[in-house]
Fold:
Amino acid sequence: MIPFLDFKDLNAPYKKKLMNAISAVIDSGWYILGPHVSKFEKEFSEYCGVKHVIGTGNGLDALTLIFRAYKELGILKEGDEVLVPANTYIASILAITENRLKPVLVEPDILTYNIDPKLLEKNITKKTKAIMVVHLYGQVGYSDAMQKIADKHGLKIIEDCAQAHGAMYKGRKTGNLGDAAGFSFYPSKNLGGLGDGGAATTNDAKLADMIRALRNYGSHKKYYNQYQGVNSRLDELQAAVLSVKLQYLDKENKQRRAIAKTYLTKIKNPKLALPQPSDLSHVWHLFVLRTKNRDTFHQYLRDCGIDSVIHYPLPPHKQEAYKEWNKKIYPITEEIHATVNSLPLHPAMTKAHINKVIKACNSYVG
Ligand SMILES: *Cc1c(COP(=O)(O)O)cnc(C)c1O
Structure:
């Protein structure tokens, strides 16, 4: 069986360096908010070209704390509306509702899977205060057109970069496109740790300061608490691991692009609608195609010895967690969720595996 993803294979090439990094943390005797977190925050800020990086416990917390910090600063308040793509992974939306802000679901463009910029303005009301742009599957969702709309209506742009480490728009990296951004370092992400981890990025010093306090019990100075914060810190071990892995992010993204290019040129089957990247900066967190009888295709791949995954089977508005939206209809989002299937694509894939996937796709008759 060709696995969809094997975390062990992803980390095997770096095992020696990772062991050394972990060993250094153990020997340092400093495990929370120490030199390794500071070092990684600095390295990642240089990588993204952004002034401030604040490590957090995971990606969801990074996003949640951005909204929370805007509330503490008086820039957002309960009930404010945030435009968010209707087809995103649910974490984007949880970060909004956790802060008692109101997500306004906006349909995506079926070709890019990203929020449809043409639909933004008609969803803006007096209460709209932000756009959450999700660079879904590794493709940038931000654009000059979006920035223009945000500027015109005085909206913040918050990026969900959990699937797009290193992706670029006109020479600028994700994490440095909007007003603030949240990253996840969950093991499967383009930059993945050996456990949970996340980071918020911003060029806004006040926002950065606030997030820094909020992630640490609402405290800037130990035992003195200005805010009712949370405990969500990137730990020293994960930071040390991420410093190693960051060195290989561009190389791995390049490998992902090469595999995607091979799929895009060699898979030729009218039954399969391949993704259509709008530019070359796509970092291919996932290679998501669409097909009419998706479950048949999914099972066919299994029978061929290929594990594929559906990202995602149920859209946020159909989830039990958001019962109040269950009767709403988002046709494009629902069409996407009914037809998508992700092929295996990761830096540890062998040529033989890639060729087997292509052969299986080309032999599919539906
Ligand atoms: C993974 C992911 C998150 C959440 O990150 P965690 O580190 O798992 O909390 C948020 N948004 C998107 C789009 C993701 O893919």
Remarks:
- The first strand starts at residue 52 and ends at 56.
- Residues 58-60, 88-89, 91-92, 134, 160, 162-163, 184, 186, 196, 198 surround pyridoxal-5'-phosphate (CB under 6 Å).
- The chain has a mean pLDDT of 97.
